[in-house]
């Protein structure tokens, strides 16, 4: 957590986080255009934020996009903030509240796993693995454009819009999120009111990017396409950190989290 505190101590870096909080997924050029900072300074600040885990990156063609990752700040809040009066916690608590309250149309998360791209790809696609840490299995051939059926908690979800969007083995995988059916809701204990909200929202998509980093693999998950004040995002942003932690534990120890 030392790197997180170091990153947040600089007002320019906090400003960058504010800018990404207003509109996530910006290029270096876009970030520089809205700030009175030299391009080199912005690059250095982004490098510090990325090292601290506060910013994660994805590629769109040749463009490198920067995304806010609030997980380290939430970890600090969970560890210490509840023990103190928030009015005395200062800028960190203000930033945390801003991150949690501002509507955002995407969720980005990065983790580093001691594994190989081949094993990680298999863990993302093979039902024998996905059932262990996710409780979900996918029925698809993982070819671009192919349909996907989701099997979870005894319910099977099928829809023509559930498709594989990208499939570049060991590097990048993307697909649309599943349809929210009454059967799925019953199997997962989702009440009628929440189901109605979920069904009224736009379909989202998730993208996994795998990057070898020596003996590790950097896994970036980008879940985007959420509506403002999205119920889907609120549910998924709580689930992804636990899910990916369980995936990491499974690959590194052979046993997923409980």
Radius of gyration: 19 Å
Q: Strands of the biggest beta sheet: in what spatial order?
A: 3-10-9-8-7
Please tally the helical runs, counting DSSP H or I stretches of 4 or more residues.
11
**Protein structure class:** alpha+beta
Shape: globular
The main sheet comes to: 5 strands, antiparallel
What is the N-to-C succession of helices and strands?
A: HHHHEEHHEHHEEEEEHHEEH
Give the strand content: 15-25%
From the N-terminal CA to the C-terminal CA, the straight-line distance is: 25 Å
Can you tell me the residue ranges where pLDDT is under 50 for at least 5 consecutive residues? 84-89
The strand count comes to 10
Arithmetic mean pLDDT: 88
